[in-house]
Each structure stands twice: as C-alpha cells, then as structure tokens.
Amino acid sequence: MAQASASPSVVSRAFLMLRFGLHLGVRQKNLRQLLICQRRAPASSERRLETLKCGELRWNEREGGWEAFIPAVAFKNAGSSYFGRQPFRLLLPDLGGLYDQIGAYLKVHRPRLLGGAADPGTFFVKTMKATSKSAAYDQNTFYEAWRLAIQRYGIFNPYTGRGRHRGPVAAWAAKILNKAWEDA
C-alpha cells in the first residue's frame, strides 16, 4: 500500500513527537499539553504551571539547552514518592541535531501548521484545515498523530509493511510504546 507523502512540517512534528516521547517518557497527556516558551522569553512560573496542571518546554540559559519542566501536580501519579512534590525537570540532550530541529519547528514548521489560526500555546499543534476549530490536540487527535508517526517513521510492522526499523528489538519497542500510550 502506497503511503501519501507528508509535508516537511508534518514530518518535523512527527520527528519531535517521537524524540520527546523517547526522551521524556511521560504520558501522552503531559506531552500533548506541553506549553512552549520561546527562546529569550520569560518562562512561566512554577505556580502558574501548577494551576494549569501542565508543563513547559523552555530554553535554560544557564545550562544552554532546551528543558522540559513539568510540575508534579500535572502527573496522574503526582502523589508518588518518585516526585516527592518536586517538579519533573529534564534538560533535553542535543543529540542528532535535536536543538536545530526544535528551532526549525518553532520558526518555520509550527507557524505553517497553524496556518494563521489562533495559537493554543502548546508545543505540538494540529495541521489547521478549513473545518478545524482549534489547533490544540485533544486526547484522540494526539493519539492518532502519534500512531501515524509510528507507522510512517517508527518501527517496522511486518503485518502492514509500514515503518522504517526492522528486527526483534523494534517489534518489542513497538509493543511497549503502544501499551504506554493506551494506558495514558
């Protein structure tokens, strides 16, 4: 079955969804609601993010990198001993040109995906069409975008013939990733 080619903006978003999913290891709700703070803009306060119950991707000047900051209350298991009432904070590694990819997504691809629609403030936005009401993902549309990214660029599925990476480890990873997103 031939696959429709995706626009560079859709490919960029899919790449970042997969990379963030692997680096952060958070539930789809936390990834879907991740706000964006542009470089050189003041970051949201922890209190504001706690009120909104969502995280933020922001530039950390001191560390010189992109940081995911998610208050503990944004997580389903916020009361667990893992958090100890402390926020989840992870400096994303600039592996494989990740920072360049984030920069290109923010400067070129994200505005194209928005297509002039109102910006919901989240890092990941839907491709706006004439019938779209909001650029923000909901649980179903984000899962569909994630599933499509896995099909197109992720792990090879021998039953459908889709995906890029083959082998037993890839099949195991596909099973784990799908289970994690279904539990979200």
Q: What is the succession of H and E elements?
A: HHEHEEEHHH
CATH topology label: hpI Integrase, Chain A
Quickly give the CATH architecture.
Orthogonal Bundle
Q: How many individual β-strands?
A: 4
* Cross-sheet strand order for the largest sheet: 1-2-3-4
Portion in beta strands? 5-15%
Radius of gyration: 17 Å
Which class of secondary structure composition applies to the elements?
alpha+beta
Question: How confident is the prediction overall: mean pLDDT?
Answer: 85
The level-1 CATH class: Mainly Alpha
User: What is the distance, rounded to the nearest whole angstrom, between the alpha carbons of the first and last residues?
Assistant: 30 Å
Q: Please give the domain count.
A: 1
Tally of helical runs? 6
Percent helix, as a range, is 40-55%
Shape by Cα distribution: globular
Please give the largest β-sheet. 4 strands, mixed
- Sequence stretches where pLDDT stays below 50 over 5 or more residues: none
Describe the structure.
With 184 residues, this protein is of the alpha+beta class. The chain has helices at 8-24, 28-32, 46-52, 98-114, 139-153, 168-183; strands spanning 35-36, 56-60, 65-70, 88-91. It has one domain (8-183): Orthogonal Bundle (hpI Integrase, Chain A), CATH 1.10.443. It contains six helices and four strands. It has a four-stranded mixed β-sheet. Helix 3 (46-52) links the parallel strand 1 and strand 2. Helix 1 crosses helix 5 (139-153). The radius of gyration is 17 Å and the shape is globular. The model has no long low-confidence stretch (mean pLDDT 85).
